[in-house]
Amino acid sequence: MDFDDIGSKLANLTMYDVKSLYRSAKNYALNVSDIEAKVDEATNDDPWGASSTLMTEIAQATHNYQDFNEIMPTIYRRFMEKEAREWRQIYKALQLLEYLIKHGSERVVDDARSHLATIKILRNFHYIDEKGKDQGINVRNRAKELADMLGDVDRIRQERRKARSNKSKYTGGGNGEFVPGSGTGRYGGFGSDSYYAGGGAAAGAGSSSGGGGGGGAAARESFEEYDAGDFEETPASKASSSTTRAGASRSSQAPAPAKKEAPKVADLFSFDDDDEPAAPAPAPAAKPAAASSSTNDAFGDDFDDFQAAPAASAPAAPVKASAQPQAASFDFFDSAPAASAKPAAASSLMSPTQSSKPSTPAAAPASRPAAATNTSFNFDDLWASSSGKSSAGGKQKTSMAEMAKNQSSNALFASQTPAAQQQGAWLISFATISSLDIAHQSFYIMAGPKTAQRELIKTTHTVAKVLSSDFGLRSGYEVVDANTRTRPTAASLSSCELIGDNGAATALKAFLAQQDNKPVSPTMRRVAISPESLATIKSGDVVVIELDPSNQLMLVHAVKGQTVSGTRLSLSIDNMLHDVLAANEVFATNETVTTELPSIIAKIDPNSVALRYAWDDKRPAFIGLKEWTTQEAVAAHEIVYHEGDFVLLEPRDNGPLLDVAQVHRIRNQQVLVRYLHRQALPKFKDERLLVPSKELARIDTATFKPVATCRVSLPPSSTSWTTEGFYVSKENAHLLRAECETCTPAQMQRRKIRRNLEVLRSMELMCGAGGLSVGLGLSGACETTFAIDADTDSVKTFKGHHPGATTYCCDAGDALHRAVSGRRAKDGLELPRRGDVDLIAAGPPCQGFSRKNKMATRKAAEDDPRNLLVCTVLGWVEFLKPKYLILENVEGFTASKLGGREQGMVKLVIKCLLDLGYAATCGFVQSGAFGCPQSRGRFVLLAARADVTLPSLPKPTYHFLGKAATSFTWTDGHGTSHAAERPDTAALLPTVTVLDAIDDLPAFDWKDPHLIYAGPDQIEQARQQQDIPQLEVSSGSATGFVAAQYRKRPSNSFQERMRVFAGQMTRAVSQHQTSGPSATDVEQVVNVALRPGADYDSWSQPEVNKPALLGPLQLNRWQDSYFKYERIDGDRYFKVLLTDASAKGSMIHPTQRRLFTVRECARAQGFPDWIEFATDANLKSAYRQIGNAVPVPLAVALGESITAARLKDAERASRQPSQSPITIDDE
User: Fold this and answer.
1) Residue spans with biased composition (Low complexity) (predicted)?
2) Residues 953, 853: one domain?
């Protein structure tokens, strides 16, 4: 070892060498990718520019889809996450972005244009260093020039052409030099021929903001507007390319004087502190202010030319201003729309309103007109007033508060604290800006340490492609995977195993065999049929038949003589996705057609149509072709029954519950049955216990129409959450006859197959308290092995009842990004990989869709960026490829538009799933119809990989006293409205009421504080005599029992289910507590009359007679629809639980003088008592978790639907063990 050599190296180490070593070690420790490290190096804080070699490497990397999606977010983070004192990094990020626009992939241009608002914000960057030098001028001017270029597509084309033509002229530019091509209009440039790596995404299919795309021809089409004419050199372009622009690198030679048409840009790489900042160029002439318009920049272009600290600036000559009135609204960002292969959507969900006008250069400061009125102010005014200095002329400016007070409702307010001044952090508040529809929000223009930039929604390539090409959304999301999917061909559109030997399967196999591996034609090609060629029609042909009232497509099954039969095919215009599907996509149906051979008028080229799924307009559902070829005929058929079978019959007395009977004897004209009555034990209401009648009943065969068969057995050994079957006591079992000898073996085999089904491994995204996972687990369908949520309390709650699951407290999108790139989660845990998950369950945030959202207007809620978190769920589906997906949300999810399309969110999800190879169905469900004692309508979407059976939405099982589930409706491309079929039979099980759910819990009242009315009252004394505890309430603290014995034994099946844990009954209940409201709220609540449905009106009625309790709330009762103070009826159901326990809502206990406790709300959602909620001292987090959860009984029903679908596949496999499937892959 040469110690002298080592010593020499150490002696020659500079501070920058140490910094470089530190960065390398930091990148290794933080698992930063190579390309991210290169971007960090190019935009570091060193006082010299990045080398041309490094810049060129980054530009070339933008052609790689994965690298592109790491480069662009890193650049944008430089803009928004750096403090003002780190202005060099911001400047160098602008420089790099400009270089990439000229030399990188075309997707860089589109992505940068979608971030134009962010770049424009930097035009107002301000930073004065400790020596009074305005370092912000460099960032301002660079941002202005970049924004101007991005607003001019022709200029972008010219710059990109120039960069290519100059490629051979400039080959260097090492450290300490400007990089050629990095400065707009001042520097030469490196060019790089455009090439297209990766797959073929549609325009803007993916980027850090949705502006990227795939490669190949599709990508060329997406960005051709920026490179129009690239391959033919016009005279103008020749002249442009031959013009050598002066470099701005440091040189010993002084540059020759030149005419100035714009402010001189400071030499960024001369960081001598003694140098004075560049002075503004004199303006040729003063111009009057232009009339304001609704699309003016709220800052005004005056801001762009602020060159130096106010103390150093000379007073400007006053110029009389135009007397035009100020516009009523501003377009703060004044952005040009992102270029797109398709027109931008009318309503952009994720980006601010953009103006179609590009930015125009600002006038020089000397020509800036004086303010027309005292309600207009400029950047100098803001700076002088906020820093306590006088502006030009020595006149003290109006204070910030006074200026804010003088503004109209759309005025722009600004303030700067001393701390913010040191950080260069400007806080801009928008009172109301109508053009952006933003109310009372704040943004940091320059990010200080406390700034939090809104994260882009993370998703994957296929989802981004649908967002961009089908909905016109090109911003607000980030693509985290590479495009590995190839463009589909006609022969690769059905990802399924076709089995079966029926006519449908044979015809479909024949049709697919006719297709080749060429890309699907964009239009459907018809081939005319002559009478002579009719003889060539065969199974598998797609033909046009002439039927009244219109022609139809048919997939031919068989031709016999002059008769042809087959399946009707529907067009995309006939279903709910008519406006996002290709016009030449067709769908199999359940309708069979038989016609004469001469009615065929044309044949369809099989390579010009896509047939991937079947369409069932009754459910509605897109069904996999494998399932379609194996399903039984859907013709209505009667239930087959035998002697000894148990059947369900419509109620004899028009009651709410189905009758249960056993068939004893079948005769020619009559059926003899024994009815089994529903019977409750003296002290226990058992919803499944039946008592056989002693006499047989005779029913005419013609009127004996069973609804379904069912199972009746002896009592189970433990409480079950599933809805399979009834039971009779051993004492009454002798009244029943032996079961059917034909059906019994089949039923036993079915139960055996069910027992042998492997439990699915599930992952719950945005899991919250875990209602979905709990229910799926109790159904026996799934075991949750992974869960993700960003809320700390929710994750703690989830870990409490799923200790064996790997739970991540992080953003689901960030976890997706890490999983796709092969990294661990932030906490070091392994993330799931493909093959680890069989089912994904998710309930994305519903605030943007919920009609119960009181915190935002309807429009603001629809523009909530969290609405697109469903794209992260779909990204996980694409990455993990599970067999099943369960997606739950509020009913308003279906009413939300996207990209200007009605039911846009539903269409987005289903279209993405179809493109990913998943069948899907959706609709509305009422949680109360599945044993939940609460009215809670929900939207549910179920999806299954095309090689397995698609589950159906669960059918209601419980009688519910409230409103039934809404019928899901959709509109086809003809404008015809359709409604999903709803079950019209009576219920299987009795209703669960509020008191059924909670009357076994300990009783207590809030103690009246008598703040308004003196006491005690007679009712208080009476309740004390009834031994009902009167607990004092302390505002901000929980009130009730942390843990207590149950009030009594369980009195019904629901209470029994709530108490059972691991087969044992729990003996105590926890978290039977309320939040601690104010003393006024307590007095108002306890004085609501003790009768069902009583509300605030009872304060003024004789039974209470305390009208002063309404006090200052007189107007609220008319203005606020949630102002109720309602006592719930114990014999009915809970109203919809919200995320806060508000006294003024419908949250008052039916028989006790208080609000519902955490435990009572948990029971309203079906959470068993052994689940405890991690929460704060006042229990607000617990109420929120419960209010956001999926009801457990609903989740149980969804799990049973998944199991029923799996049983079909398992039974089919057991009947066809030796059949060899035909596999058709989609990759």
Assistant:
1) 236-257, 306-320
2) yes
Residue 165 has what pLDDT? Answer: 81
Task: Specify which residues 458 forms β-bridges with.
Answer: 478
Structural domain containing residue 896:
757-987+1196-1213
For residue 677, the SS3 value is strand
| pTM of the complete model beyond 0.70 | no
pLDDT of 777: 95
With vertex at residue 492, the alpha carbon angle to CA 490 and CA 498, rounded to the nearest 5 degrees, is: 115
Catalytic residue among 496, 782, 846, 932: 846
Phi-psi region of 748 (alpha: psi -120 to 50; beta: other; left: phi over 0): alpha
Look up 846 and say whether it is catalytic.
yes
Tally of structural domains, the chain: 5
Q: Is residue 606 part of a domain?
A: yes
User: Are residue 873 and residue 935 in the same domain, yes or no?
Assistant: yes
Mean pLDDT rounded to a whole number for the chain: 76
* Residue 621 identity: A
Name 115's Cβ contacts closer than 8 Å, sequence gap at least 6: 76, 209, 475
Cα–Cα distance, 633 to 635 (Å, whole number) = 6
Contacts (Cβ under 8 Å, ≥6 apart) of 939? 888, 889, 890, 891, 893, 894, 922, 923, 924, 968
Verify that 1161 and 1111 share a domain, yes or no: yes
Backbone angles phi, psi at 786, to 5 degrees: -140, 145
- For the segment 1148-1199, what is each residue's pLDDT rounded down to a tens digit? 999 999 999 999 999 999 999 999 999 999 999 999 999 999 999 999 999 9
* Secondary structure of 1078-1124 as H, E, C letters: CHHHHHHHHCCCCCCCCCHHHHHCCCCCCHHHCHHHCCHHHHCCCCC
Give pLDDT, residue 400.
33
Residues 1202 and 1117 in one domain: no
pLDDT reported for residue 1151: 96
* CATH number of the domain within which 28 lies: 1.25.40.90
H or E stretch covering 763 = strand 760-765
User: What pLDDT is attached to residue 1208?
Assistant: 92
Same domain? 33 vs 83:
yes
The DSSP code sequence of 609-664 is -EEEEEEETTTTEEEEHHHHHHSPP-S--PPP--TT-EEEE--TT--SB-EEEEEE
At 573, list the tokens: 């215009």
Q: Which of 137, 165, 193 is the last residue of a domain?
A: 165
Q: Are strands 621-624 and 806-809 parallel, antiparallel or unpaired?
A: unpaired
Alpha-carbon Rg for the chain in angstroms: 36
849 and 955 share one domain? yes
Paired with 543 in beta bridges are 554, 603
Biggest CA pair distance of the chain:
116
- Residue that is last in its domain, among 601, 629, 657: 629
Question: Which residues neighbour 749 within 8 Å (Cβ) at sequence distance 6 or greater?
Answer: none
Question: What are the residue ranges in the chain where pLDDT is below 50?
Answer: 1, 170-452, 489-496, 634-636, 853-858, 860-861, 1218-1227
Q: Cα–Cα distance between 36 and 1143 in angstroms, integer?
A: 52
| Statement to judge: residues 749 and 772 lie in one domain | no
CATH number assigned to the domain comprising residue 605: 2.30.30.490
Summarised one tens digit per residue, pLDDT across range 172-197 is: 433 333 333 333 333 233 233 333 33
In whole angstroms, give the CA distance from residue 323 to residue 317. Answer: 18
Q: Is residue 577 part of a domain?
A: yes
- Residue among 127, 119, 22, 36 nearest 73 (CA): 36
Question: What's the burial of 585, exposed, middle or buried (CB within 10 Å: 0-12/13-18/19+)?
Answer: buried
Cis peptide preceding 288, ω within 30 of 0: no
Q: Model confidence over 968-1008: pLDDT tens digits?
A: 999 999 999 999 988 878 999 999 999 999 999 999 999 99
Q: Is residue 622 part of a domain?
A: yes
Is 742 domain-assigned? yes
